[in-house]
Specification:
With 276 residues, the chain is an alpha+beta fold. Helices cover 17% and strands 24% of the residues. It has helices at residues 2-7, 9-27, 136-153, 155-159, and strands at residues 38-41, 46-51, 72-76, 111-113, 118-124, 162-167, 172-176, 190-191, 196-199, 211-216, 229-232, 234-241, 263-267. Residues 1-11 and 14-26 have low confidence and may be disordered.
C-alpha cells in the first residue's frame, strides 16, 4: 500500500507536465523579423475582405507563436457590388448547439494560389471540415475548451489542412484552414506564382471558412518567426468597408500599404504564370 501511494502521484505529475509544455511552447516568442516587407503576389482572386491583418496591427493575431506575427485572414466578399456595403454589421449569434455547415459560407471552396515560385515542403489535407462556430454555445466552446485542446495539439490542430511552400528567396509561406481533400500539390513539387494550391476550407482553429496565410523564416510553424509581406495584384476599394471586420485606425506597428482590417480589395492574377 505504501509503495502504491508513493508512485501514484508520478503519472499525475507527468500528465500535468505533458499538458503544460505545449502551452508554454505556444507562448514562446520567436525572434522578431521586422525587416522590409517581402514582395509577394496576393493568394486569392476576386473581391476579398482582410481581417486580423498586419495592416492594422502587429502581432496581427495577438501572438508571435507559430509564425503568426504578420499573418492575415481573408474572407470572400459576397456582397452585391452595386450596393453600398459600408454599413454591414456582424450577424447576431444565436443559441444553437450546432453551427452552420461550411458549405453555407461564400469563402468555402474558393481557390488558393501560390504567392511566389518555390518548392512545396509540406501538405496536409486529410482533416475534415467542421461546422462553423457561429452561435454563443459554439463560440464559447471554441474560445475555451476547444481552443485549449488545439494549443495542446500544436500547429496541426491550429492551422488545420495546410500547404507550406519554400520560396526561391528563402522564405516560407503557410496557407492554412484548407478544405478537406483539396490540395492540388504534393511535397517536393515545384510551383509558380499564381499556381493553384488548394481551396479555402474550415479546418483547424476557425470560427468560419476563411484563408489564413503567413510568411515565415523556416518551414516548421512551431519554431518559425513571422516575416512581413507586401502584396502585388491588389486594388483596395476606398468606397466600401466591411464594418463587421473593421477595427478603426491602424496602430503604429501596422505594416504600411497592406490591406487593413475590414478593407475590401480586388485581387488579380500575376501577369505571367506557367504551370509546370
Amino acid at each position: 500500500m505504501v509503495l502504491v501511494m508513493s508512485v501514484a502521484p508520478v503519472p499525475r505529475l507527468w500528465a500535468v507536465v505533458c499538458m503544460l509544455v505545449p502551452l508554454v511552447l505556444f507562448c514562446v516568442r520567436p525572434p522578431a523579423q521586422r525587416g522590409d516587407p517581402v514582395d509577394m503576389h496576393v493568394p486569392v482572386r476576386g473581391r476579398w475582405i482582410a481581417c486580423n491583418s498586419p495592416g492594422s496591427r502587429v502581432p496581427s493575431h495577438g501572438v508571435r507563436a507559430h509564425g503568426q506575427m504578420y499573418a492575415v485572414d481573408l474572407l470572400l466578399d459576397a456582397a452585391d457590388e452595386a450596393t453600398d456595403d459600408s454599413t454591414d454589421t456582424a450577424p447576431s449569434p444565436g443559441w444553437s448547439l450546432r453551427g452552420r455547415e461550411p458549405e453555407g459560407y461564400p469563402s468555402y471552396g474558393a481557390p488558393v494560389f501560390a504567392m511566389a515560385s518555390g518548392t512545396v515542403v509540406h501538405v496536409t489535407d486529410h482533416l475534415r471540415d467542421h461546422r462553423a462556430r457561429d452561435s454563443w454555445p459554439t463560440l464559447i466552446w471554441m474560445m475555451i475548451l476547444e481552443g485549449f485542446l488545439r494549443v495542446l495539439g500544436g500547429a496541426r490542430s491550429i492551422l488545420g489542412n495546410r500547404v507550406i511552400v519554400r520560396h526561391d528567396n528563402g522564405t516560407y509561406a503557410a496557407y492554412a484552414h484548407l478544405r478537406h481533400g483539396s490540395a492540388a500539390v504534393r511535397p517536393g513539387g515545384r510551383v509558380d506564382a499564381g499556381q493553384l494550391l488548394g481551396q479555402v476550407g474550415n479546418t483547424g482553429n476557425t470560427s468560419e471558412p476563411h484563408l489564413h496565410v503567413q510568411l515565415m523564416d523556416r518551414s516548421r510553424p512551431e519554431s518559425a518567426a513571422g516575416i512581413p509581406m507586401h502584396w502585388s495584384g491588389v486594388e483596395i476599394d476606398d468606397q466600401r468597408l466591411s464594418h463587421r471586420w473593421a477595427t478603426g485606425y491602424a496602430k503604429p506597428s501596422a505594416v504600411p500599404d497592406f490591406p487593413a482590417n475590414g478593407q475590401i480589395f480586388e485581387a488579380t492574377a500575376p501577369q505571367e504564370h506557367h504551370v509546370r
